[in-house]
Amino acid sequence: MSEVPSLNPKNPGQAVVSLPLVKVAMPPRDRLMKALEDVLYGGMIAEGEQVSRFEAEFANIFRLPLGLGTSSGTGALHIALLLADVMPGDEVITTSMTAEPTNTVILQCGAKPILPMWTRKLAT
Q1: What's the pLDDT tens digit per position in 76-113?
Q2: Helix axes 29-42, 49-61, angle to 10 degrees
Q3: Most buried residue among 5, 43, 81, 99 by CB atoms closer than 10 A?
Q4: Per the confidence metrics, is the pTM higher than 0.70?
């Protein structure tokens, strides 16, 4: 933890403690680089033995009957909507406070994105 100057104008001399919200766990460099080289030089980035092993291990860890890797979050959202039986003409409540692909996949399913109207009263 490191102390940084406060950005609070009411207490300019006050120090605050900065805590990392996310700490990425990394394997040892030699193990990581070997695995990365195996994938990159193996010629199979989006499929192949490493992806199949990852899917199987993911499913095992989370006690799922199947794990499925996708090439993007957009692809994963599209599959999730299809598995949820979202059909043409359905309405899907979503948010405008997101990246464009989040709502594009709703349209790809033929559904209609519904953006709720928020008011100060609803937000509290």
Answers
A1: 999 999 999 999 999 999 988 888 888 999 999 999 99
A2: 130
A3: 81
A4: no
